[in-house]
Design a protein that fits this description.
The complex is a heterodimer of chains A (482) and B (72). Helices cover 76% and strands 1% of the residues of chain A. With 482 residues, chain A is mainly alpha-helical. Chain A has a single domain, classed as Sodium/glucose cotransporter, CATH 1.20.1730. Helix content of chain B is 72%, strand content 6%. The longest helix of chain B has 32 residues. The two termini of chain B are 27 Å apart. The chains are: A mainly alpha (482), B mainly alpha (72).
Chain lengths: 482, 72
C-alpha cells in the first residue's frame, strides 16, 4: 500500500463527503415537503440541472467502459456518442411535457405519472420494479468502474470503495438530491479537466498528434477503424435503442423532475450535448491504449492501464480519485431514484397506501441505505458476469416502458389495457431474445435486443388501441406550460 | 384519433433530423479517412453534435414564439 496514493484518494473522497453533508445549506428547503428531499424541492435552474444530469449520465463506468469498448471493438464504440446525441432531441420533445404534468400533480417518479394517467397501480408497480432492477446493476457497474481503476494503484480497493459508498449513503440520506447536485460540480470540474488534458497529452506524447494516432490506428487495425457491413445495423440499433431508453431510467427522470421549470428542461436539452464532446474524446483514448498496452484480455482495463503506464503511480492515483468521484455522484442519484420508486410505487401500492409524508421520507431514506448496500454486495460478492447480465436484461427492459411513459404525453388514445399488454409482451419477448443469446449478448441477429420488444409493443398497440376508450385522467392542459 | 398537436410541425422536423441522419446515414459516415486530425466518423459525430445543439435551439425559439402566440 502506498500512503501518498491513499492520501490523494482520501482527500478527494473526504472533500466530496464534506460538500455532500454541507449540501443542506445549498438552496435550503422552505418546507418539509417530500419533494424537498427527493427532488431538491424542484428548485434547480439550468446550470445546476446541467451538472446534475451530466453527473448521472456520464458516469465512472462510462469513463472506463467506453474506451474499453473502443479498445476491443474499434469504432463500434462510437455508438455511445451517437446515442447521446440522439437522446436530447427526444428529451426536448418529451421531458418538458412530463415535467409540467409532474409539477401540476406532484409526481416524484415515472411510476406516479403512469399510475395517474392510466389509473392503474399495477402499471405503476411494473414501472417501479423494472426501474429498480435497472438501477441496481447500474450502481454495481459504478463499483466495477472504481475497482478497475483502483486495481492499477497501490490502494486497497475494497476499503476505498466501502468508505466512499458509506459517505455517499450518509450525505444522500441526510440531504437527498441536494447532495449529488452540489457534489456534481466538483466531479464534473475535475472530469472535464482530466479528459481535456488526456486527449491533448496522450496522442502528442505517443504519436506526435491526434492525426498521427488515427493514421497509426488505420494502418494497424484496419478492421477496427471502420464498421464492417454486419456492424452497421448493430451500431444503428444500439444507438437508436439506447437513445430511446436513456431518459426512461429513473435517475434521468429524477434529474428532469428536479428542474424549476419546463423551460429549464428545454434549455438543458439544448446544452447537455456539450458533454457528448467529452464522451467522444474519452472514447478515442481506447485507440491510444491499443498502442500503449496491446493485448489486454480484459478491455475494461484499457483506460486504467493506459493511465498507469503513461503517468506512473501518483498521477494514476489522482485520476483514480476523479474516477471514484465519477462513481459517487451517480450512485447517490440512482439510489434516490430507486428509493422513491420503492416507496411510492411498490411499498405504497402493495403494503400501505396510507402512509404520511414523514413515514414516506423515512422509508425512502432507509431504502437508499438498502439499495447502496445491495449494490455493494452484488458487485463485491457476485461475479462481474452476473451484474453485466442483470444490467443487460434491465437495460433492454427499461425501453419497454416507452408506451407507458412517452406515448401518453402525445395522445390520449393509448389506454390502460393495451399499454399494459404491450409492455408485458415487450418485456417477455425481450427476455426470450436474451435467452436465445444465453443472456450474454445485447445484440441478436444484428439488432439490439430491446428493439424486438419495442416492435411487438407497436404491433400490440396498433391491434388493441382502438378497441378501448381513450384515457382522460390527465388533460391536455396539464402538459403545457403555465 | 385525437393527437395533441401542440408542437409546431417545424419543431418536430428540426429535432427529428439529427435522429434520422445518425440512424440511417451510417453507411455514409462510416469512413476512416482523416479530417482535421480526426477520423471521419469522429469528426462527423462532433459536427452532428453541434448541428443538434443548433437545431434544438431553433426548435426552442419556435416553441417559445408558438407558446406566446397561444397565450395571447
Amino acid at each position: 500500500m502506498n500512503v501518498l496514493e491513499l492520501a490523494i484518494m482520501l482527500i478527494f473522497i473526504i472533500i466530496v463527503g464534506i460538500v455532500g453533508f454541507y449540501a443542506s445549506r445549498f438552496k435550503p428547503s422552505l418546507t418539509n415537503d417530500i419533494t424537498e428531499w427527493s427532488l431538491g424541492g424542484r428548485h434547480f435552474g439550468t446550470f445546476i440541472v446541467w451538472f446534475l444530469i451530466g453527473g448521472d449520465v456520464y458516469t465512472a463506468y462510462t469513463l472506463i467502459a467506453v474506451p474499453g469498448l473502443a479498445y476491443g471493438a474499434g469504432v463500434l464504440a462510437l455508438f455511445a456518442t451517437s446515442y447521446v446525441i440522439m437522446t436530447y432531441p427526444i428529451v426536448f420533445l418529451t421531458m418538458p411535457r412530463l415535467w409540467n404534468a409532474a409539477k401540476k400533480h406532484g409526481f416524484i417518479t415515472a411510476g406516479d405519472y403512469v399510475e395517474k394517467v392510466f389509473d392503474s397501480k399495477t402499471l405503476a408497480l411494473i414501472v417501479g420494479i423494472v426501474g429498480i432492477l435497472a438501477e441496481l446493476p447500474y450502481i454495481g457497474l459504478q463499483i466495477f468502474g472504481m475497482n478497475f481503476m483502483l486495481s492499477v494503484t497501490h490502494v486497497p480497493s475494497n476499503i476505498t470503495i466501502i468508505i466512499s459508498l458509506l459517505l455517499v449513503m450518509g450525505f444522500t440520506i441526510f440531504n437527498g438530491l441536494r447532495a449529488p447536485a452540489l457534489t456534481a460540480f466538483i466531479k464534473d470540474f475535475f472530469v472535464w479537466i482530466m479528459v481535456l488534458f488526456l486527449i491533448i497529452y496522450i496522442p502528442i506524447h505517443y504519436f506526435g498528434s491526434i492525426g498521427h494516432m488515427f493514421s497509426w490506428f488505420n494502418q494497424h487495425y484496419p478492421k477496427k477503424s471502420v464498421l464492417s457491413p454486419g456492424q452497421i445495423s448493430v451500431f444503428g440499433t444500439l444507438a437508436f435503442g439506447s437513445a430511446a431508453a436513456l431518459f426512461l431510467y429513473p435517475h434521468a427522470i429524477t434529474g428532469v423532475y428536479s428542474s424549476k421549470s419546463a423551460n429549464t428542461v428545454r434549455k438543458n436539452a439544448i446544452v447537455l450535448p456539450i458533454y457528448n464532446i467529452m464522451l467522444l474524446l474519452i472514447t478515442l483514448l481506447g485507440f491510444a491504449a491499443l498502442f500503449v498496452v496491446p493485448g489486454l484480455k480484459n478491455p475494461n482495463m484499457a483506460f486504467p492501464m493506459l493511465i498507469s503506464k503513461t503517468f506512473g503511480p501518483i498521477p494514476t492515483a489522482l485520476i483514480g480519485a476523479i474516477i471514484i468521484l465519477g462513481s459517487m455522484i451517480p450512485a447517490s442519484i440512482m439510489s434516490i431514484a430507486s428509493a422513491n420508486l420503492f416507496t411510492r410505487n411498490i411499498y405504497k401500492n402493495l403494503i400501505n397506501p396510507n402512509i404520511s409524508d414523514s413515514t414516506e421520507r423515512i422509508i425512502s431514506k432507509v431504502s437508499v441505505a438498502v439499495i447502496i448496500l445491495l449494490a455493494l454486495y452484488l458487485s463485491l460478492a457476485m461475479s462481474p458476469a452476473f451484474i453485466i447480465t442483470l444490467q443487460l436484461m434491465a437495460g433492454s427492459w427499461i425501453v419497454q416502458l416507452f408506451p407507458l411513459v412517452f406515448l401518453p404525453l402525445f395522445t390520449n388514445r393509448v389506454s390502460k389495457i393495451p399499454a399494459g399488454i404491450a409492455t408485458v409482451a415487450g418485456i417477455l419477448l425481450t427476455t426470450y431474445v436474451l435467452y436465445l443469446g444465453h443472456f450474454k449478448l445485447a445484440v441478436y441477429k444484428g439488432i439490439w435486443v430491446g428493439l424486438y420488444g419495442l416492435a411487438i409493443e407497436v404491433v400490440v398497440l396498433l391491434a388493441l388501441t382502438f378497441l378501448f376508450k381513450p384515457m382522460s385522467n390527465i388533460s391536455l392542459d396539464d402538459y403545457l406550460d403555465d | 384519433m385525437k393527437t395533441y398537436k401542440r408542437y409546431h410541425p417545424l419543431v418536430w422536423v428540426l429535432v427529428i433530423i439529427p435522429i434520422l441522419i445518425l440512424s440511417f446515414g451510417i453507411p455514409y459516415y462510416n469512413r476512416n479517412d482523416i479530417v482535421f486530425g480526426l477520423n471521419f466518423m469522429s469528426f462527423f459525430l462532433i459536427v452532428m453534435d453541434i448541428v443538434t445543439i443548433i437545431l434544438t435551439f431553433i426548435a426552442y425559439t419556435i416553441e417559445q414564439k408558438t407558446s406566446q402566440r397561444r397565450k395571447k
